[in-house]
C-alpha cells in the first residue's frame, strides 16, 4: 500500500513545479515572439539603376530628382515610371519605363517573399538611355522661318 505522506509530498511537489513552470513557459513564449517580430525575416530589396550615354545627365523619376547618371534609387512598388534625363547640349529625354514584377513578387507568392523568407532577396533593374545631341539652328535660318510664317499668316487674312 502506498504511503499517503509520500503521495501528498509528490503531489505538492508536482503542483509547485507546475506553478513555477507556467511563468517560465509564458516568459519563453514572450521571448520567442519578440525574437520573431524583431528578426529580419523575409525582405525584398528593390533597386533601380539608371545610366546614360554620355553620363552626367540629371535624372528625375516620377518628377523627383534622384541624381546624375549613373545613379540608383530604391523603390517600393513595381509600376511604369516616368524617367526624364536632362543634360546641357543634349535633348531632354522622357521615357515611360515599365519596371517588371518578378515571379516571386506576384500574388500570393509575394506574402512569402516579403515576410517569411529567412534571407533578403535583392531585385535590381538597370536601364541605359542614349541621349541625342541638341540640334542648333543658326540664327539666320530661324529669322527666315519666322518671316515665312509671318508672310503666310498675312496672306490668309
Task: Please name the defining characteristics of this protein.
3 helices, Immunoglobulin-like, single chain, 157 residues, three-stranded mixed β-sheet
Task: Provide a descriptive summary of the structure in words.
The protein has 157 residues and is α+β, with helices and mostly antiparallel strands. It has two domains: 39 residues; 88 residues, Sandwich (Immunoglobulin-like). It has three helices and seven strands; from the N terminus they run H-E-E-E-E-E-E-H-E-H. A four-stranded antiparallel β-sheet has the order 3-2-5-6, with no helix packed on it. Strands 4-1-7 form a three-stranded mixed β-sheet. Strand 2 and strand 3 form a beta hairpin. About 4% of the residues have low confidence.
User: What is the fold named in CATH at topology level of the largest domain?
Assistant: Immunoglobulin-like
Sheet with most strands: strand arrangement: 3-2-5-6
Structural class: alpha+beta
Oligomeric status: single chain
- How many β strands by DSSP? 7
Strand content: 25-35%
Largest sheet: 4 strands, antiparallel
**What is the number of helical segments per DSSP (H or I, 4+ residues)?**
3
- CATH level-1 class of the largest domain: Mainly Beta
* DSSP helix fraction: 25-40%
pLDDT under 50 segments (min length 5)? 4-10
CATH architecture verdict of the largest domain: Sandwich
- Total number of domains: 2
The shape, in one word, is rod-shaped
Please state the average pLDDT score: 81
Order of helices and strands: HEEEEEEHEH
Distance between the termini: 128 Å
Alpha carbon gyration radius:
34 Å
Amino acid at each position: 500500500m502506498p504511503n499517503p505522506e509520500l503521495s501528498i509530498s509528490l503531489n505538492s511537489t508536482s503542483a509547485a513545479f507546475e506553478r513555477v513552470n507556467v511563468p517560465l513557459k509564458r516568459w519563453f513564449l514572450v521571448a520567442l515572439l519578440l525574437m520573431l517580430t524583431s528578426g529580419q525575416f523575409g525582405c525584398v530589396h528593390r533597386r533601380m539603376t539608371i545610366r546614360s550615354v554620355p553620363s552626367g545627365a540629371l535624372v528625375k523619376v516620377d518628377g523627383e530628382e534622384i541624381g546624375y547618371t549613373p545613379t540608383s534609387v530604391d523603390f517600393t512598388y513595381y509600376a511604369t515610371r516616368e524617367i526624364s534625363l536632362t543634360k546641357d547640349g543634349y535633348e531632354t529625354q522622357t521615357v515611360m519605363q515599365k519596371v517588371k514584377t518578378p515571379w516571386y513578387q506576384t500574388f500570393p507568392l509575394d506574402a512569402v517573399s516579403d515576410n517569411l523568407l529567412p534571407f533578403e532577396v535583392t531585385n535590381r533593374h538597370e536601364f541605359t538611355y542614349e541621349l541625342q545631341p541638341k540640334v542648333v539652328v543658326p540664327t539666320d535660318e530661324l529669322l527666315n522661318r519666322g518671316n515665312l510664317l509671318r508672310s503666310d499668316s498675312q496672306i490668309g487674312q
